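Technical appendix A lists one of the benchmark inputs used to test multi-chain prediction within the project. The record comprises two sequence entries:
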Amino acid sequence: MPRVREVKVPYVEDKTTVGGPPAPSEADVSRMIRAEVETWKPRRGPEWSDLMIRIAAAGPSPWVVYTTASAALVVILVAAFLVGSWLQIGALAPQPVQVHLPK
Amino acid sequence: MTQAGQLDPKTQFRQLYDQEFNSVYRSIRAVVLDSAAAEDLTQETFVRAYRARHRYTPTAPPGAWLRRIGVNLAISHLRRQKLARFLPARLYTAPDRRDYDRAEARDVVEKAMLALSPKLRAAIVLHYYEGLTREEIADVLGVPAGTVASRIAKAVAIMRKTIGSDQQRDAARSRSEGALRGR
């Protein structure tokens, strides 16, 4: 029978739990995210009729508004220039030029 | 899909709406972390997608296209909210007190997600929940794949730290409660 030698050793406290549990691993974080997101459910499901009402209530899309407004502005500016030139209004009228020719 | 790559409103768009609604909702919810706002923004996403369906080109799956609209809409919503705080008190109504109470009751993961920026949240939800690759997320968010990789790594590091410190705090609290009970 083998002999067992008993020796006295100083007591060392198991400190593995001191400071709390370690930070979760990437796999744990990924699992937690999946579990959390899984609980996110809309109170109302997809409602096609509500969507159609919203589409009908919404005005024209911004790019249509911007394009139309830009085109209207260009037309107004060109028309103002043509009318102003034709009626010879203000700066669009022929300007007197003072010329001093040397004798 | 029709010949020009457009979505037929009567059949295909409706089918897409039913199929992708929850997925788009979750992506938006990850950004705004508010269920009511997320529901509203999800419907708004489909309104925008419906109006832009003529411009849809099938280079990417329609789900990615919808999520891209949704995430951008959610980020704009948060930006508007942030700007609204600078408005005079008469024009800006502060969020309901119940929102703060609800925030208190949020669990560890949602609290950790709250510590992230909306863009980081969108990246991790699309990666870990939707299972999209970095390239697919890059397509959804409109950023390079390298940026997506760094966002995911940063988000995970922040979440690990936040969850870890939360757990440590809980452990310390239970230890002190145990010691008090032992007296």
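The mean pLDDT of chain A is 81. Residues 62-87 of chain A form the longest helix (26 residues). Comparable benchmark entries are summarised in Table A2.
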